Amino acid sequence: MKQILNETNVDYAKECFKEAIDLGINFKIHQKVKKRNFDKNMLNKLLEIPTTSSEPLKVVKEFKKEILPYCTNFSDVKFMGFPDAGNSIGGISGALISDLLQQNLINSSFCAPIATFTEIAVVKWLREIIGYKVKPIKNIWDVGGIITYGGTGSNATAMLLARENHNKKTMTNGVNNPKDYKVIIPKGIGHYSIKSSLMWIGCGDNVIEVETEGFKYNLSKLKEALIENKGKIMSVVVYVGDSRTMTIENLTDVYNLVKSIDSNIWLHADACHGFSLAFSKKLKNKIKGIELYDSISTDPHKVLAIPYCISALLVKNTEKLKLITSTSDLIMQEDFAYGQITPFIGSKSWVSLKLWFAMKSLGVEGIGKMIEKRCDIATYLKEQIIKNDKFVLLNEVNINSVVFMYIGNNINDVEYLNNLNLKIYNYLLDEGKYYLHKFSLPDDKGIIKKDATLIPLRYMSGNNNITEKDIDEMLRHIVKVARKVENE
Ligand SMILES: Cc1ncc(COP(=O)(O)O)c(C=O)c1O
Prior knowledge:
Layout: H1 10-30, H2 43-47, H3 56-66, H4 89-101, H5 113-130, E1 145-148, H6 151-166, H7 170-173, E2 182-186, H8 192-200, E3 207-210, E4 212-213, E5 216-217, H9 219-228, E6 233-239, H10 251-261, E7 266-270, E8 295-298, H11 300-303, E9 311-315, H12 352-387, E10 391-393, E11 401-406, H13 414-431, E12 437-438, E13 441-442, E14 453-454, E15 457-460, H14 468-486
Parallel strand pairs: 2-3, 2-6, 6-7, 7-8
Antiparallel strand pairs: 1-9, 4-5, 8-9, 10-11, 11-15, 12-15, 13-14
Helix pairs in contact: 1-3, 4-12, 5-12, 6-8, 9-10, 13-14
Pyridoxal-5'-phosphate (PLP) binds near residues 270 and 272.
């Protein structure tokens, strides 16, 4: 039998795994952003249930022919819409090894003895880099962080902590009046995970959106909201690199303002992207003040070239994780069973091994250099856009996001420009050569028209292989596409 690994089929298994690895590497290196567009008519064939057996190697080969050409290559230098390049050799090694070793971090003593401690090490490294204190670790409640499967999970857990911190009996009693569990977020630039997680944890849709200026809180509006809702706010969320523009909040000012009005409010920093700056001596200063926050979400799978999925939620006061501890006789009640402090997660694979490998192989300094390079490339693009009167720049470029619109000769007609940039986006998507992202964005500084909703294009990359030449070629391509679609 070739399906289940044992001593009799080791050579066959190796052949199969080699084919899988070759497929993956060739995909990352040679496939353009996308080779083929998925046609919905293919769906019926895909949905057919396989009733008879097939050799794994045959399945890999079938996958290569039938499925792979439709995959998007985040590692291609022309994929310029998101930073999740996933091409760290150390990170990929960790991913492969973690899948082969099948450790389950729900418990420590019998199912993940060493894995638990390498995970604790990874959390400790992140705490150190970000500037949180590290204390001697005697049990899981001294660690001050958990590994989750993504920023959404980390943010949801932070909101759960905020809820319990606001009203300690909520875990057992439930939420009585959701309107007493409000959360403040910046208007128009928040990531959906905060609002959604509040709905998932029974706090309802009670976010207060406060006006921004240059994609940071307008501090006097924030103060008004805090005073008006005093006693009913459980958390204020800031972005250390918001999903659209990568703007970094005025971290110390927001912290001082919020804590001066209500010291019990849980301050959460969504630094899924921005924590990466902490690796660089040169850039670290940009996120000064982050260490004051009660919790911090980080997303190594987005910004450290590590394959999906891994996120870490760091908690300043390690003891606070007791607020959301679950006990059950199905999770070992032992000092280091991580399952006691990982809400929403049961069995948990050794995802932190990817980060362990990436950090061991690049070191903090190597990662710092990688982050500096990506910020330099984004700055280069910013400069090219400023020089070119066919484009307008919409953000300050703090990290690696460059938000811009093609304006041709027209600057004032928002509807026309939104339409044109949407046409460029759709053309690129269909063509499969480049990927730039798009979204809606409030024009809070009036660069095109004050408070209008814009639909710009967005470059954002974490791919260490992108060069200035790639940036020049991309801009030339956009101008060509714009001319083509302008009169359609
Ligand atoms: C600022 C921010 N927070 C949270 C998330 C959610 O992260 P994930 O997709 O890893 O769940 C994202 C995703 O883009 C993000 O940009």
